[in-house]
What we know:
- The chain is of the alpha+beta class.
- Among the domains are: 1-133 and 306-319, Nucleoside diphosphate kinase-like domain (Alpha-Beta Plaits, 2-Layer Sandwich); 191-232, no CATH class.
- The protein is 41% helix and 18% strand.
- It has a four-stranded antiparallel sheet, with helices on both faces. The chain has a four-stranded antiparallel sheet with strand order 6-7-5-8, with helices on both faces.
- α7 packs antiparallel against α15.
Amino acid sequence: MARCSLLTGLALNKFAGQFLGNFLKIRHSHLSWLLVSPDALRRGWLGWVLSGAVTRTGGLEIVWAGLVDELAGRAALLVFCGEDAVAKLSAAVGSVRDAGSLAAMLGEGMLSVAEPGADVLADLEKFAAAQNGALSLPVAAGIERSLVLVKPDNFHFPGTRPGAVIDVFARTGLVPVALKVHYMSVAQGMDFYGPVLDALTERFGPEKGRDHWENIVEFMSGSRPSAVPESDHARPGTRKILALVFEGPDAIGKIRAVLGPTDPAKAPPGTIRKEFGTSMMINAAHASDAPENAAREIGIVQVADNSLKRFVESAASSA
């Protein structure tokens, strides 16, 4: 399973040739896809579907996520990796006639999935032609965008937590306009949490403040800045993150309300950080606190640079 993560995190960047040896190559049979319909996405079922797909398949790993245009609107495409991924995911989704299946619980037309015998890469190539580029459009008057990061502590083992976190954000009624499976580099972590360094330095002093800040970057990327040569700072990290961009009126406030304060001990019941957080750093999710910070953070995480075409090309060349 680890090689699935490494393929996704490393194959889509200029460092791919240094990492993708024979051990990291992936067979086509290890990939499958699940499409969450525009209607299901609008109803806030994305998190529930993600949880169900992982737990009902014995822990298939999500390796790519994004939005594609369908006739009925914007749909969410989830790509999974693991042994017999097509058969397992197809069985989990089932049909509306299969009692207890994901399809039966959501209803007709809510989900589509690769069927046994399908050419998964060919399917993904077709989806790539319809990949959604909503972030390239300007934000309309009265509308805000908020970046949400489902943090690495949710991915320590395959389970329901990433989907459960997304479920809470769905309470806002906001619909994601972008999705990305991301591996934050040390450089991105330093840039993303750059504004925090001054506050930590002021509170704890230069040495302890820097140490706390490096702990945050390490938690998000997998490496401490001081322990990694500067020439390697741009390499993708080893910690999985799921990035989402929500858009709508008062998106910042709505998202922050269900997220809760940084300290889980001070968070109200039912908020994400109260339910899933364990400390001020390991607190399940991040959300932008202002529109200008959302724009800055979306750029750092490069949510718009999430090419399904490039993912397919990498998977095909490494098979």
